[in-house]
Design a protein that fits this description.
The protein has ten helices and eleven strands. With 248 residues, the protein is α/β, with parallel strands linked by helices. The protein folds into two domains: 153 residues, Rossmann fold (3-Layer(aba) Sandwich), CATH 3.40.50; 86 residues, no CATH class. It has a six-stranded parallel beta sheet, with helices on both faces. A three-stranded antiparallel beta sheet has the order 2-1-11, covered by helices on one side. Helix 10 links the parallel strand 9 and strand 10. The longest helix has 18 residues. The protein is elongated.
């Protein structure tokens, strides 16, 4: 067991499970790139008014460069967002079957046009901290609402993939956050017990996922969209960023 320091709390752990967006990655930049790619693809299949409804439905305003931090694009898994996109198309006159087919085609095309690291940029100090944790013997894992493929390919491009013992995406499990499924999958892949692991994330959903999995501790970071006051309701410790994590 390794002693991990988060703020004024010290906890023994074998595994640190990280959320990706807002925790390791600049979430706003990556979401903007994803929204642009998906909008460009959507508008090839539907009229402008339907594309505008799609933006509103998934929670983006690309003209103003705004993302709804609590909206589907920012919080939902890809499969959930596909249904929401299909609903926007359905409301503008397509049958439900047509709407689902258009959504899947548009999203597949958008994903194929994007190249690693998909607009993702590591937050300051993240790479050095991950290396330090790994050097001291901790296992590292990812639990992300993004897909496994996108996460792994982005991390390879950012040259951090080799630091992780397990990567779990929303498509690897039956249920996404705050279900504990992602954590259970990470534990299974690393051979670690829940009381030997901690979760690090930027959202209340990450903290709730950790609580549901009964991990040893839930550590909140303030580099995402969630306020300190909201995180304090569920987190066992809070730090400004992943870069503040230390080991003894």
């Amino acid at each position: 067991m390794v002693k991990l320091i988060a703020g004024n709390k010290t906890m023994e752990s074998k595994l640190v499970i990280f959320d990706k967006d807002g925790t390791l990655i600049d979430q706003h930049l990556s979401l903007l790139e994803l929204a642009k790619a998906r909008r460009n693809s959507v508008q090839k299949h539907v009229e402008e008014k339907t594309t505008e409804l799609w933006e509103k439905t998934v929670g983006v305003d690309l003209k103003k460069g705004k993302i709804d931090h609590d909206g589907p694009l920012a919080t939902a898994s890809r499969r959930e967002e596909l249904l929401i996109a299909a609903a926007a198309f359905y409301l503008n006159g397509f049958t439900w079957s047509e709407a689902r087919q258009i959504a899947l085609r548009a999203y597949d095309e958008a994903d194929s046009c994007m190249k690693p690291p998909y607009g993702m940029l590591l937050l300051q100090g993240v790479k050095a901290t991950l290396k330090q944790l790994k050097h001291h013997g901790l296992k590292l894992a990812i639990a992300s609402t993004d897909t496994h493929r996108r996460t792994e390919e982005a991390f390879k491009a950012l040259k951090i993939a080799s630091l992780f013992d397990a990567i779990v995406g929303s498509d690897d499990v039956p249920f996404g956050k705050p279900s504990p499924d992602m954590i259970f999958e990470a534990l299974k892949k690393t051979g670690v017990k829940p009381d030997e692991a901690v979760i690090v994330g930027d959202s209340a959903t990450d903290m709730q996922m950790g609580k549901n999995a009964k991990v040893k501790a839930c550590i909140g970071v303030l580099t995402g969209f969630t306020s300190k006051e909201e995180l304090e309701q569920l987190a066992d410790a809070i730090v400004s960023s992943v870069a503040e994590l230390q080991v003894l």
